[in-house]
């Protein structure tokens, strides 16, 4: 859900509210009760909750069955190069 910033023109209160995008804007200031409580135009923040997000599910899980980069490099170095075709003279 997005986090919206509000400011009261009467008392100067600045506050963030977690709201659904479909929710109506908050009209009354929670501090002074004024109707001059307006939503500011800003880059909306949001929170990712639940499973399925990178930070919660995939950040530190090891990859099973896959070789590390160092293992695959050392194997390719130890393999002998393919023989070159013989040239006719």
Short description:
This protein is α+β, with helices and mostly antiparallel strands. The protein contains two helices and four strands, in the order E-E-E-E-H-H.
Main beta sheet: 4 strands, antiparallel
**Average residue pLDDT:** 74
Cα(first) to Cα(last) distance is: 76 Å
Question: How helical, in percent, are the residues?
Answer: 10-25%
- Low-pLDDT residue intervals, each spanning 5 or more residues: none
Strand content: 15-25%
Structural class of the helix and strand makeup? alpha+beta
What is the succession of H and E elements? EEEEHH
Report the strand count: 4
Give the number of helices. Answer: 2
Radius of gyration: 30 Å
Principal-axis shape equals elongated
Task: Give a verbal description of the structure.
With 89 residues, the protein is α+β, with helices and mostly antiparallel strands. Helices cover 16% and strands 19% of the residues. The protein is built from two helices and four strands; from the N terminus they run E-E-E-E-H-H. Strands 1, 2, 3 and 4 form a four-stranded antiparallel beta sheet that branches. The radius of gyration is 30 Å and the shape is elongated. 4% of the residues are buried.
Blueprint (SSEs and pairs):
Blueprint: E1 2-8, E2 14-18, E3 37-39, E4 45-46, H1 54-57, H2 69-78
Antiparallel strand pairs: 1-2, 1-3, 1-4
Q: Could you list some keywords that capture this structure?
A:
89 residues; alpha+beta; four-stranded antiparallel beta sheet; 2 helices
């Amino acid at each position: 859900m997005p986090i919206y910033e509000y400011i009261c023109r009467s008392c100067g209160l600045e506050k963030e509210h977690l709201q659904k995008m479909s929710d109506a804007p908050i009209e009354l200031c929670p501090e002074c009760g004024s109707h001059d409580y307006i939503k500011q135009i800003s880059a909306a923040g949001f929170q990712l909750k639940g499973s399925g997000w990178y930070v919660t599910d995939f950040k530190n899980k090891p990859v099973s069955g896959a070789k590390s980069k160092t293992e695959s490099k050392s194997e390719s170095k130890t393999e002998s190069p393919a023989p070159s075709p013989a040239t006719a003279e």
